[in-house]
Amino acid sequence: MTTVTGTQLAASSGRRAQNPKVSPHFRYQDSNLIIRSSDEMEFHVHKSIMSSSSRVFRDMLSLDAQNLSTTSDLALVDVSEESDVIEAALRFLYPLPRPILKSLSPMVVLFEFADKYDIPLINFTLQEILSQSNLLTDETVRTFSIAKKFNLTRVEAAVMPYAVQNISKFMAFGSSTEETEVLTLDDIHRLDHSRSRRSVAAFVALHSSTHTSHMSLPLCACRRMGGRAERACEAWTAFADLFIKTLRENPSTDISDPTLRYEVISESNCPDARVTLFTHYAPYIQQAGREIKEIPWAFPEEYEREKLCSREDMGIDDCTFEYEAIE
Ligand SMILES: [Zn+2]
C-alpha cells in the first residue's frame, strides 16, 4: 500500500486561485475540505466522509493537520490525479450516480486510486462490478492479470473458470499491456494444474457414481454375449474415456451434451449402446454432471504442495554455497 503523508498530499503552494474552478457536483455548502486535482479543479467535500472512507485521508487529517493549508476549518489537499479521476472516485463515496464502467482501463485507474488512498469501498464495489461483467470472458487474460496485480480475490475467483478454459490465450500474453507484465510462467503452470486436477476429480465423480451400479442395470448385448456381465457395457466405458479426454482439452465440457454419446454410439460394437447411454445410464450422467459442476476451478494449496515436492525431488532445497577459505 502506498503511504502518502499529509505533507506530500498538500505539497503544492496551498494557495487558492482567485476564481477557482469548482466541480459542479462536489460543491457542498457545509464542505470543510477541498481536494484540488492536478488540473486545478476543486472538489468541496467533507472531512468526515473522506476520513471514514480512506485510511490515508484519515491519517492525514487527524495526525498531520498542521501541515495543511487551512482557512478556519477549511482544509485544502492537493492531489496528483486529474479531475475526471477524482470525480469518478468521489462518486463511489457520495450518493451520486457511479460511472458506467464497460472497459478495463478506467477500472484500473480506479483500482490504483483505491489502492493509493486505501479506500476499501471503491475496491469492493469495483470487484463486484468486474466479477459480474462480460469482461471476464471478453478480456480474460487482462482481467486475470489485474486481479493478480491488485490482489483482488473476488475477481480472481470469478475469472478462474475462463482462465482455465483459455490457457492458450495466456501463452501469447507477451506483456501487451502494463497489467499483463505481472504474469509469469508460474501462472500458466497454475492454470494448467487446475485443468488437469479438474479432470482427475471429474474422473473420480464419474466412476464413483457408477462403479457399484453396473450389476443392477439390465443386461445389454455386449454384457450378455461377451461374458461382461460383471462389468459395464463397453459403450459406457468408451463414453467415460471420451468424456475425460474431451474435458482435459476443454474444461467446460458438459457431460450431458448428447453429441458425446452419439459419437460413442456410432462407433460402439454393442448393439444396445443407444439404450445403455440414453436410458440406463442417464441418471448417472445427470448425477455426475451435478458433482462435476461443484469441482473447484483452483487448487492453490495442492499446487503449492506439488511445487514444493518437485523442488525437493530436484534437490533444490539442498542447495548450499561453499567457498574456499582465503589465506
Ligand atoms: Zn453393451
TrEMBL record:
<feature type="region of interest" description="Disordered">
    <location>
        <begin position="1"/>
        <end position="23"/>
    </location>
</feature>
<feature type="domain" description="BTB">
    <location>
        <begin position="29"/>
        <end position="94"/>
    </location>
</feature>
<dbReference type="InterPro" id="IPR000210">
    <property type="entry name" value="BTB/POZ_dom"/>
</dbReference>
<feature type="compositionally biased region" description="Polar residues">
    <location>
        <begin position="1"/>
        <end position="11"/>
    </location>
</feature>
<protein>
    <recommendedName>
        <fullName>BTB domain-containing protein</fullName>
    </recommendedName>
</protein>
<dbReference type="InterPro" id="IPR011333">
    <property type="entry name" value="SKP1/BTB/POZ_sf"/>
</dbReference>
<dbReference type="Pfam" id="PF00651">
    <property type="entry name" value="BTB"/>
</dbReference>
